[in-house]
């Protein structure tokens, strides 16, 4: 239930190295010290411009002490930083990026790698270091080595080590803390948050046993005083709210789709929803209940996952599962979630849903003609969908061809952005489909540009797709909604309650029906 | 200074060994401690200084006593530190914990550790800040965490404080109750474990434990201190799956107290962070597993909340709960539900990839209520995982590579179980289609990562379904096409052939693949061949030639056509690398089992290579040609075999010696021994025969001056008395390397360290056997100046396995007295003659100046001691009669021309050594020599 060490490695492709920290740079090896205490970066093999450096390392000597007595003769010490880094990058397939084949890195022998890697330590402390957990996002690789607290021989399954899931949680928490939950990390904030790590770790993992994950964004401040009542304050609640009670419940549904326009291949789509809450309610342990409701003949919510602050669950809520055959008798709400909220915004629950039709049905046809490509796209908005978008765009990328020359397109609606250097057409449909709820685009493109455009291993020849990006406010596909009046807050003051919902697309593909579309599974999940 | 510390600390933690090679652990530790006591340093720097102590305690405190001292130092820093610097005090507690645990001070209950324990307990109990701003709260939290770590590392340490800790946990209402709860559950778990190890412990012991009445009921337990017990079992998790056994405490059904404690803990677990909840749940699972008196149903009310959670660690703890209690807590419906849940979670769009992969691992190690097999560690599919259920996890091209492979692996297991009929067949078809689409992506030129992923997937497919020939044959065909268009995949394909051959020993798939690849290479038109392709083809052919089953004729035809200038221009450039690649194929063919049928074409090819444009390649081709045409098959195999064994098909060495044949090289090169094998030690002196004292009263040829003249005349021959011969024994150095017990043909070589001697000749010793008496070696030295010296020595010898070795011997030291010779006069001159020469020389030296010198050396010696001294050291050089005790006359002759004359007499106050020498430079040496021998004499007598 403990980790032996923690590493945070920044890994950059390209020469965008944070030189502002540098003290000296030599040709082959760069040792770049941060002027913040504790942190240093090592870049290795700057020759191929893959910069990897350990930004933060923390070892837990008492856990190491336990590891030694638990593992006995099979104990493998944690190697020094540079060795560790090199082994880790090899195992992740990131070393020697200039070389076509490296036996250690590219061996075809299958062994489960992620999430627990094994590092083959050479030299005097020879042995296999396992299980090294890693998560990576953008420029950062975070790694930790959980303590194996069961007999090491034969190697125990990951599932028998509670420290593995705890390690994963810790890493994910640190990742969110360092990079934010958004996809775009800001490198400015990263440095300052790295600098905060020692004091953050003092709170969340002082001696190698993870106690909590750091709160994203907020600096570690001493907790606000609490009234000395008899009710124990939850450890995950950093303070108490004072002031007017406000409860904010947001419901977002995401739809994904793969449409082939081909009889032999079934089109696929799926929907999942998340309910996010921000509750400003007084009291040490206030009670709030949020209820999700479905329209009369809505299909049941499946695969419900709840936040740990939910106090109790009805068993009927959990029964529906997307991997089951649909059972008509399944429970279809209302879904009650009683909980005591933490101070910060959190994801109360998530679900998946089976909906009968995709919101937008498309067809895409390409025909290769002399020196040009004939393009035909049709998009139909389903009648049940509110014809009021925040935005709706269709992206048509073309790969493995020369750059676009003449683009001659006729649109029944919307406007077209042509990005010749990216070989990309963006069809901006705006806020509304026309009354007919159907739009078309037809025309020809010649690829007569002087240089080759972008390439992709999947989209060769006539394998091509249209990718839709859209967002519809105030609607859900499943019909699921949170009624303002169903939100119950058990506190003295009458709270203000705000609810919202929206539908958004993600990975919404319409494949060219005249080309071979890549194999996808019988079930929807990608 | 602060910046300097930041840099130094970071240098230390980056590479502790490197950092400490520039200083010592003690010095660095002392520096750290000094700086920590320094009032001028800021607390942020001081926190930095503590990090090496926290992270590398054992490295800095290399012994328990150092740990103890360090801890005492840190405690005094802690006491002096003002309460308001909370962060620093927290870090100090962490450092103290690390140092005391890692140096085993806690285990041995050292003074510092007991003091520290008291300090921690005091802090943990100090709730005076409850009404203030709570600024000291982090300190209390850290103290609890330190106590927990101490208990975790030394189980049972706090068993006696259980009641106190329970009380603290109950009282606390701030967020700190979590720290107390964690501490309490661990101590409880360890205390109960201790009880299970006690024979006869039962319900009342448990009651006493929880009630804090430890003094009476629990005396005995303290003696069986588990902290000192050798096995680490108590540290391990007790939840081990179907094969694990849990120690139990038999209490009967009456354990109300424990049950109420557990219920409270479980009810309040909701207030803990998910990570701490998971730990607590796991500890409580262990406790309930150890005490059968408490039914597992105690967890039931919490199960729904746990099963619905989105937190990976909470669900994991629930799985461990299932692992521990199986059907006594989970019905078969529950089991089916959990498995479905795991499948859902393994592909849930909102979870991260590592989490999803972890859940897949949990499916493969699913804790079934009634497992069919008890195979530990192996991946087995739960019975309930039907192909229909698993179909949610089929791999797709949109997966990232690790997910793709994990899914590929799991689905292969599923379809393997199903067999080729029905659903399994369809599934298999899907998997193969998926593999093909990966292959076409590789064909279209994808990233390196995807190439590797494809080959891993291909390996997995073959691993499970190699026997399904319609797929494995088709895969061979597709791979050949792939190689034809992408020869850069040669190493991947070779690797695939190697691994399938290793893992699937009964399958001939990899030979089939290699055969097909050989066909692709040899049948392709030469006109389109580039030199890059050729080099990869040749690598592939090397691997093909490793297979005895594959007929090599077409390879030879291919070689002959590329080397023939009329058919291909690729080799006309005489590229050295290309030449080597070709030769490497030839070398494999030389040891191929079907060599007999290859003789003529291979000889032809080698003959062609003899005209290659690179000299070296020509030479080697000629060597191979000669080997092939002159040696019998067996001999040829013998010469080449050794190297083949070493490298086998993995040989990738580029060295010339590799090309030559590794078998020859080790016998032809001289290897260096790691350390000295033998050495030369001075042999004990032989009794000297023919002492000049024997001839008593003969007279010499005349007057003293004439005698001196005659003596001098002898030196007209420059070789006269110019050498000293020293006796040495050649002995093994006492290391037990049996490899060197018998040595032959030892050739000793000496080299000088100064210019005072002529160069020495080499010495040969036929053999040196450990069990036989040592060999005497005579070292003949020819001094230019008779000074003490050192000689370097080395040797070349042969070991019994025929290898030749070079070794260095320890230096040989030649002492000053070893250069002494008796006066070189004809024996016929007798004592009278020599005495005359002595007197003549003495007079000459005393009257002359120039290089001559006289001196006096005095020392305190009894008469008896003097006699012994003379007998022991001077006898061979004594000119006067031994019985003539008033004055001993001694003459040392030192080649080539020097003399030292001594007149030794006992005077009133001391023994006087009157010294006369014709070479004043020797005075210092004779002085130190006399000092040595006389002091030796004094020592032995006193």
From TrEMBL, chain A:
Its membrane topology, per UniProt? Peripheral membrane protein
Q: Where is this region: Disordered?
A: 215-235
Which CDD domains does this UniProt record tie to the protein?
Answer: AP_MuD_MHD (cd09256)
InterPro entries for this protein? AP2_Mu_C_sf, AP5M1, MHD
Which parts pass through the membrane? none
Cited SUPFAM superfamilies: Second domain of Mu2 adaptin subunit (ap50) of ap2 adaptor
Please list the residue ranges that the record marks as compositionally biased, kind Low complexity.
215-230
- Show where the MHD domain sits: 244-511
Tell me the domain of life: Eukaryota
* Cellular component, GO annotation: AP-type membrane coat adaptor complex; cytosol; late endosome membrane; lysosomal membrane
Instruction: List the Pfam families.
Output: Adap_comp_sub
BP terms from Gene Ontology: endosomal transport; protein transport
Q: Where in the cell is it found?
A: Cytoplasm, Cytosol; Late endosome membrane; Lysosome membrane
Q: Which UniProt keywords apply?
A: Cytoplasm, Endosome, Lysosome, Membrane, Protein transport, Transport
Cite the record's note on assembly.
Probably part of the adaptor protein complex 5 (AP-5) a tetramer composed of AP5B1, AP5M1, AP5S1 and AP5Z1.
> Which family would the database say this protein is a member of?
Belongs to the adaptor complexes medium subunit family.
Please give the name of this protein: AP-5 complex subunit mu-1
Source organism per UniProt: Oreochromis aureus
UniProtKB/TrEMBL annotation, chain B:
User: Which segments constitute the AP-5 complex subunit beta-1 beta-barrel domain?
Assistant: 742-812
A GO-annotated cellular component? lysosomal membrane
Q: Gene name, please?
A: AP5B1
Question: A single GO BP annotation from the record?
Answer: endosomal transport
In what residue span(s) does the AP-5 complex subunit beta-1 N-terminal domain sit? 30-100
What organism is the protein native to? Oreochromis aureus (Israeli tilapia)
The name this protein goes by in its record:
AP-5 complex subunit beta-1
Which InterPro entries has this protein been placed in? Answer: AP5B1, AP5B1_barrel, AP5B1_C, AP5B1_middle, AP5B1_N, ARM-type_fold
What range(s) does the AP5B1 C-terminal domain occupy? Answer: 837-933
Its domain of life reads Eukaryota
**What sequence ranges are listed for the domain AP5B1 middle?**
254-636
The record lists the membrane-crossing segments as none
Q: Which UniProt keywords apply?
A: Protein transport, Transport
Species lineage, top-down? Answer: Eukaryota, Metazoa, Chordata, Craniata, Vertebrata
Q: Which Pfam families match?
A: AP5B1_barrel, AP5B1_C, AP5B1_middle, AP5B1_N
Keyword RNA-binding included in the entry's annotation: no
């Amino acid at each position: 239930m403990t980790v032996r060490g923690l590493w945070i490695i920044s890994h950059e492709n390209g020469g965008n190295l944070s030189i502002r920290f540098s003290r000296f740079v030599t040709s082959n090896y760069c040792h770049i010290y941060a002027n913040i205490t504790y942190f240093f970066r090592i870049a290795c093999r700057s020759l191929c411009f893959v910069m990897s450096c350990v930004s933060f390392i923390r070892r837990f000597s008492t856990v190491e002490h336990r590891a030694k007595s638990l593992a006995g003769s099979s104990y493998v010490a944690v190697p020094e930083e540079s060795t560790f880094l090199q082994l880790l990058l090899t195992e992740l397939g990131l070393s020697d990026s200039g070389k076509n084949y490296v036996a250690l890195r590219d061996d075809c022998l299958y062994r489960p790698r992620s999430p627990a890697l094994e590092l083959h330590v050479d030299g005097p402390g020879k042995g296999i270091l396992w299980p090294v957990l890693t998560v990576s996002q953008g420029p950062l690789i975070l790694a930790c080595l959980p303590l194996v607290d069961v007999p090491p021989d034969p190697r125990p399954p990951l599932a028998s080590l509670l420290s593995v899931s705890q390690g994963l949680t810790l890493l994910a928490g640190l990742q969110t803390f360092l990079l934010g939950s958004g996809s775009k990390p800001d490198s400015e904030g990263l440095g300052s948050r790295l600098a905060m790590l020692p004091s953050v770790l003092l709170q969340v993992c002082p001696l190698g046993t993870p106690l909590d994950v750091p709160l994203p964004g907020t600096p570690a401040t001493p907790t606000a005083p609490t009234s000395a009542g008899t009710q124990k304050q939850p450890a995950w609640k950093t303070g108490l709210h004072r002031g007017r009670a406000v409860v904010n419940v947001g419901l977002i549904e995401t739809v994904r789709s793969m449409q082939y326009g081909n009889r032999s291949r079934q089109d696929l789509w799926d929907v999942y929803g998340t309910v996010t809450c921000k509750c400003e309610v007084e009291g040490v342990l206030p009670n709030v209940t949020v209820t999700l409701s479905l329209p009369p003949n809505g299909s049941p919510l499946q695969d419900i996952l709840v936040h740990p602050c939910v106090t109790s669950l009805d068993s009927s809520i959990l029964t529906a599962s997307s991997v089951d055959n649909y059972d008509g008798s399944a429970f279809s709400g209302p879904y009650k979630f009683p909980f005591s909220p933490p101070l910060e915004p959190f994801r109360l629950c998530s679900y998946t849903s089976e909906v009968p039709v995709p919101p937008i049905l498309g067809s895409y046809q390409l025909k290769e003609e002399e020196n040009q490509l004939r393009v035909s796209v049709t998009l139909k908005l389903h009648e049940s969908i509110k014809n009021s978008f925040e935005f709706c765009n269709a992206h048509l990328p073309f790969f493995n061809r020369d750059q676009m020359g003449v683009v001659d397109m006729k649109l029944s609606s919307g406007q077209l952005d042509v990005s010749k250097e990216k070989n990309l057409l963006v069809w901006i449909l705006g806020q509304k489909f026309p009354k007919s709820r159907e739009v078309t685009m037809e025309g020809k493109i010649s690829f007569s540009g002087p240089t080759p455009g972008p390439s992709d291993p999947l989209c060769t020849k006539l394998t091509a797709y249209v990718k839709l990006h859209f967002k519809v406010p105030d609607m859900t596909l499943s019909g699921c909604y949170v009624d303002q009046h169903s939100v119950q807050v058990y506190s003295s003051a009458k709270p203000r309650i705000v609810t919202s919902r929206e539908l958004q697309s993600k990975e919404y593909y319409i494949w060219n029906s005249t080309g071979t579309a890549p194999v996808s599974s019988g079930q929807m999940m990608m | 200074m602060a910046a300097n510390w930041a840099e130094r600390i970071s240098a230390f933690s980056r590479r502790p060994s490197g950092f400490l090679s520039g200083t010592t652990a003690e010095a660095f530790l002392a520096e750290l401690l000094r700086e920590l006591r320094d009032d001028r340093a800021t607390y942020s720097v001081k926190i930095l200084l503590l990090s090496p102590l926290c992270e590398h305690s054992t490295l800095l405190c290399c012994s328990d006593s150092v740990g103890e001292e360090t801890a005492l130092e840190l405690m005094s820093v802690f006491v002096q530190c003002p309460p308001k610097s909370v962060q620093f005090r927290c870090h100090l507690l962490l450092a103290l914990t690390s140092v005391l645990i890692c140096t085993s001070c806690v285990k041995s209950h050292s003074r510092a550790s007991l003091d520290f324990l008291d300090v921690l307990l005091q802090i943990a109990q100090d709730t005076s800040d409850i009404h203030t701003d709570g600024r000291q709260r982090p300190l209390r939290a850290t103290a609890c965490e330190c106590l927990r770590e101490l208990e975790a590392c030394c189980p049972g340490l706090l068993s006696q404080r259980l009641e106190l800790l329970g009380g603290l946990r109950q009282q606390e209402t701030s967020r700190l109750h979590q720290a107390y709860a964690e501490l309490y559950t661990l101590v409880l778990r360890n205390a109960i474990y201790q009880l299970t190890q006690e024979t006869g412990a039962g319900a009342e012991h448990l009651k006493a434990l929880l009630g804090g009445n430890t003094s009476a009921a629990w005396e005995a337990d303290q003696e069986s201190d588990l902290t000192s017990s050798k096995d680490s079992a108590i540290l391990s998790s007790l939840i081990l799956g179907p094969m694990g056994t849990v120690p139990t405490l038999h209490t009967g059904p009456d354990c109300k107290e424990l049950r109420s404690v557990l219920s409270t803990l479980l009810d309040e677990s909701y207030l803990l962070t998910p990570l701490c909840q998971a730990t607590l749940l796991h500890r409580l699972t262990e406790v309930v597993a150890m005490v059968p008196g408490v039914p597992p149903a105690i967890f039931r009310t919490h199960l729904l909340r746990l099963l619905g959670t989105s937190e990976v660690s909470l669900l994991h703890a629930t799985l461990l709960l299932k692992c521990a209690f199986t059907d006594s807590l989970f019905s078969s419906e529950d089991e089916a539900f959990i498995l479905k849940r795991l499948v859902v979670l393994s592909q849930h769009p909102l979870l991260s990839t590592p989490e999803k992969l972890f859940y897949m691992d949990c499916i493969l190690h699913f804790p079934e209520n009634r497992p069919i097999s008890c195979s530990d560690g192996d991946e087995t599919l739960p019975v309930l995982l039907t192909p229909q259920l698993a179909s949610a996890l089929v791999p797709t091209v949109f997966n990232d590579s690790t997910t793709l492979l994990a899914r590929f692996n799991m689905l292969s297991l599923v379809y393997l179980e199903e067999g080729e009929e029905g659903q399994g067949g369809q599934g298999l078809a899907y998997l193969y289609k998926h593999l093909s689409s990966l292959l076409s992506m590789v064909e279209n030129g994808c990233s390196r990562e995807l190439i590797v992923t494809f080959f891993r997937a291909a390996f997995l497919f073959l691993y499970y379904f190699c026997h399904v020939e319609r797929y494995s044959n088709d895969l061979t065909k597709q791979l050949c096409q792939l190689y034809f268009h992408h020869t850069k995949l040669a190493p991947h394909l070779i690797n695939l052939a190697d691994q399938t051959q290793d893992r699937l020993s009964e399958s001939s798939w990899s030979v089939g693949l290699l055969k097909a690849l050989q066909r692709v290479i040899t049948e392709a038109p030469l006109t389109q061949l580039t030199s890059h392709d050729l080099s990869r083809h040749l690598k592939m052919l090397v691997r093909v030639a490793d297979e005895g089953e594959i007929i090599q004729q077409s390879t030879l035809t291919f070689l002959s056509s590329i080397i023939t200038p009329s058919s291909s221009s690729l080799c006309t450039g005489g590229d050295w690398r290309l030449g080597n690649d070709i030769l490497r194929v030839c070398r494999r063919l030389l040891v191929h089992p079907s060599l007999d049928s290859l003789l003529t074409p291979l000889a032809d090819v080698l003959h062609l290579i003899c005209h290659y444009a690179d000299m070296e390649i020509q030479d080697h081709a000629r060597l191979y040609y000669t080997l092939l045409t002159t040696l019998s098959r067996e001999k040829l195999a013998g010469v080449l075999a050794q190297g083949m064994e070493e490298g086998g098909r993995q040989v990738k060495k580029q060295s010339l010696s590799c090309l030559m044949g590794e078998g020859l090289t080790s016998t032809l090169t001289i290897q260096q021994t790691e350390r000295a094998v033998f050495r030369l030690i001075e042999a004990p002196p032989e009794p000297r025969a023919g002492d000049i004292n024997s001839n008593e009263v003969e007279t010499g040829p005349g007057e003293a001056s004439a005698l001196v003249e005659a003596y001098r005349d002898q030196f007209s021959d420059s070789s006269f008395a110019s050498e000293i011969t020293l006796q040495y024994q050649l002995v093994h150095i006492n290391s037990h390397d049996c490899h060197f017990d018998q040595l032959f043909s030892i050739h000793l070589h000496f080299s000088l360290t100064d210019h005072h001697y002529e160069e020495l000749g080499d010495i040969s010793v036929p053999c040196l056997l450990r069990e036989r008496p040592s060999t005497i070696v005579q070292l003949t030295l020819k001094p230019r100046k008779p000074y003490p010296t050192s000689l370097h020595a080395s040797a070349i010898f042969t070991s019994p396995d025929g290898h030749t070795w070079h070794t260095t011997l320890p230096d040989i030291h030649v002492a000053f007295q070893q250069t002494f010779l008796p006066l070189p006069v004809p024996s016929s001159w007798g004592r009278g003659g020599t005495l005359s020469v002595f007197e003549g020389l003495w007079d000459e030296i005393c009257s002359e100046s120039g290089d001559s010198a006289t001196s006096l050396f005095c020392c305190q010696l009894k008469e008896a001691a003097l006699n012994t001294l003379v007998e022991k050291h001077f006898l061979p050089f004594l000119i006067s009669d031994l019985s003539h005790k008033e004055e001993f006359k001694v003459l040392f002759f030192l080649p080539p021309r020097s003399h030292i004359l001594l007149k030794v007499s006992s005077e009133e106050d001391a023994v006087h050594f009157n010294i006369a020498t014709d070479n004043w430079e020797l005075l210092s040496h004779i002085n130190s020599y006399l000092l040595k021998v006389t002091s030796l004499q004094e020592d032995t007598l006193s």
